[in-house]
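This section describes the prediction task in plain terms. A model, or a person checking by hand, is given the sequence of a single protein chain and must write out its three-dimensional structure as a string of tokens. No templates, partner chains or ligands are provided. The sample shown here is typical of the held-out split.
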Amino acid sequence: RGGARGRLVRRLTHCLISLGAAYYWIPAQLPLLQISKWVILVLALLAVTILEIWRIRRSRLMLGMRPHERGRVASYFYAVTASVLVLAFAPMEVGVPAIVAMAVTDPIVGETRLRTGSESLAIVVSAACYAIIATTALLAIGVSGSTAMILVLVMSPVAVASEAIDIRGLDDDFTMLLFPALVGGAVLMFIA
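The expected answer:
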């Protein structure tokens, strides 16, 4: 919806998903509210669920949504759901690169695919972007170079496959975030 403007809104909104990684730096107990920080995740999931139920029942599209999302669950719901799962269960060393790399890589790949029409180029761009962003995120949070390299080597191909392969019933915003986090988490248990 919204043509080029809608596409730009969708791409920029997608990049904002990366802000979810800030959850890792929130104190376990929120000082002013005196509640545990996991409540934020529950409230986020509840809010998007209510919004999505309302949107589907009203058959509405919000700015940036694609026409096929009118009568089905929208990609933002999948992204928030996967983010909540990753933030709830994955350690920072896996969650930060998974969230940030997916949030930025997916729109870049979508734009590459749209402008070039080349699936091969989209795959190469996806792998390169994900690896660069994930590596940067890992090093920024203080993960050692060797651990970062191992995590990127296992998470990047999973992310690329998750984006490239269509899994019926699951949006790539869900798979491209959750699957690399699962694999990264399993690998981290063995190398930590």
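For orientation: The chain has a mean pLDDT of 91.
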